[in-house]
Specification:
By secondary structure, this protein is an alpha/beta fold. The protein contains 11 helices and 7 strands. It has 2 domains: 7-18 and 90-197, HAD superfamily/HAD-like (Rossmann fold, 3-Layer(aba) Sandwich); 22-86. The chain is elongated and about 60 Å long.
């Protein structure tokens, strides 16, 4: 068994929520847009980074995306963007079940590179954490060490007593540089094994 921890900090997307981009693809079909157009206009543009660090709200960013699409493809595009905006990803029931068990033993915080829509999305998916840190609320995103420092400070737990899980290797390395027990997330089975090594019992899991 490794050292016991006093808390857990985790990434959101790829662990507890999965994006299939079904809403974006549906909107593209309805609007007659080439596949991948919405992703390009939404996530490859500087406005997304601005929303991710809280300079724009999620709604302001979405409106910016709609404006640019309308400028390039015609105003009718706007009426077909509903499926894209309504798509909030898919909840991972297995991981949420593990989360609920872990929270009986130690507090769990989520640190996600997200807009200010994160709290609403968590409510939508009925996922509860003890601490919620979107990059928008912190004003800084991963892999900046400042993001990890801000989260650990607000959890009031030393980094050396916190474990961190993320499916992005760069973010894992950044977390480790701040003193966190950082692990690459590869799936629920390995996650369970690592959590148990920290002395946390998970009923019915091996």
């Amino acid at each position: 068994m490794t050292d016991r921890i006093e808390g857990l900090l985790v990434d959101m997307n790829g662990l507890f929520r999965h994006w299939r981009n079904t809403g974006a693809r549906q909107s593209e079909r309805l609007a007659g847009l080439p596949p991948g157009t919405i992703n390009h206009y939404a996530y490859d543009h500087p406005s997304y980074r601005a929303a991710r660090v809280g300079l724009l709200t999620d709604q302001e960013w979405a409106e910016n995306v709609a404006e640019r699409l309308a400028d390039d493809f015609g105003p009718a595009v706007r009426q077909h963007l509903g499926p894209w905006r309504a798509d909030r990803g898919e909840r991972d029931d297995t991981m949420v079940g593990l989360l609920d068990q872990i929270r009986r033993h130690v507090p769990v915080g989520v640190l996600s590179n997200c807009t200010d829509a994160l709290p609403t999305d968590l409510e939508h998916h009925q996922i509860e954490f003890d601490h919620v840190f979107s990059s928008a609320s912190l004003g800084v995103d991963k892999p900046s060490p400042n993001a990890f420092h801000a989260a650990t400070d607000r959890m009031c737990i030393p980094a050396q007593r916190l474990a961190y899980f993320d499916d992005e290797p760069t973010f894992v390395q950044a977390a480790a540089s701040t003193g966190l027990h950082a692990h690459l997330f590869t799936g629920a089975a390995d996650f369970t094994s690592q959590i148990q090594k920290f002395g946390i019992s998970l009923a019915g899991r091996s």
